[in-house]
Amino acid sequence: MTQAMPIPGHIDPVTVPRPAPAREDARVELVGLSKAEMREALAAAGLDDKQAKLRAKQLWHQIYNRGATGFAAMSDIAKPQRAWLAERFTIGRPEVVVAQVSTDGTRKWLLRTVDGHDFEMVFIPDADRGTLCVSSQVGCTLNCRFCHTGTMRLVRNLDAGEIVGQVMLARDSLGEWPSQPEGRMLSNIVMMGMGEPLYNFDNVRDALKIVMDGDGLGLSRRRITLSTSGVVPMMARAGEEIGVNLAVSLHAVTKEIRDEIVPLNRKYGIDELLEACAAYPGANNARRITFEYVMLKDKNDSDADARELVRLIRKYKLPAKVNLIPFNPWPGADYECSSDERVQRFSDIVFEAGISAPIRRPRGRDIMAACGQLKSAAEKKSRAELDRIAAEKQAALA
Length: 398
Ligand code: SAH
Ligand code: SF4
Hints:
398 residues, alpha/beta, DNA polymerase, domain 1, 2 domains, two-stranded antiparallel sheet, 33% helix, binds S-adenosyl-L-homocysteine
């Protein structure tokens, strides 16, 4: 088991675990490295500067544009050098443990890191596009009460290679290499899988930079959305250094209820969060911030809640849209989903105030692939154990 260690620094001292360990065979994983890092890795393995630069350029193109998974077929590199590379480097993907397809076409993969930790990835196809839901951590330090991932401890952060590796694996399975700008099934990415992306900032940023690089995976930042439960101190940096669309898991409009269902609210309250949204670089009427709102019966779904949501969005002059997510139940959850009529009424109130508030259709429920249901199969715990984990996490936040 990977051990936890505190991150030094004053920005937001939460406990995070150690990074991914080195491979047992000591080869260096190239997936996840930037062009400069590839050059450094090649130089460290013994190539002179000029060679390292040239090879890094070739490898970058082969790996991120062509989708190469080995060196053998790289015809632009001399054969002896391909063998030399293969002894020292790998071009990996997360291991697939289980791949499932829902009756509605949603696909879910249970994936495994090289050191044996399981995490999940989901692909949601639509008529003319498809969205890949990517994980940033194995487990989560937060403990939103309605979220299945929140019942796991954080095992560790995924590294940049494991994050970008999910996108590459999905491309493998959809047969979408080489990278091309148009006509792809995998057209959008949401950082809404397991984990809180802003608690794994550097790796998420480095991975998304590769995804957005025109010469890499080539997906526009307009087609990428990062969802946070409200890690206020990291939001400005996310806007400046990553620049993707922002989604915020608001879920409640009063302190009392948000404290209960999104315990991070005790640390960063609603006003602070909405101020950070108002200051989010790049948000405007053409690129709105999405407020995610999970509909929980008799908890956060009244007419008064809907009106308060409108008031808050107006108060902070937010270029906003609201995504209403019917609660997806999981075994042992404390909540129920609001009725269809209630969800519709809530949506109408927000719509009538001039704010778009579509109701998200649940996808992949039959394979537990819907929002907030992700949790690796290996992690089955008793109710008492779950309560203990929740208490520990909340104590850590206090
Ligand atoms: N940690 C990040 C991103 C992952 S969760 C965050 O919290 O934003 C992606 C979205 O699914 C979040 O809005 C989350 O609140 C929502 N969600 C979690 N559990 C859910 C459930 N059981 N039903 C519906 N939505 C859920
Ligand atoms: Fe973590 Fe997001 Fe789930 Fe909250 S909703 S427990 S932040 S994954």
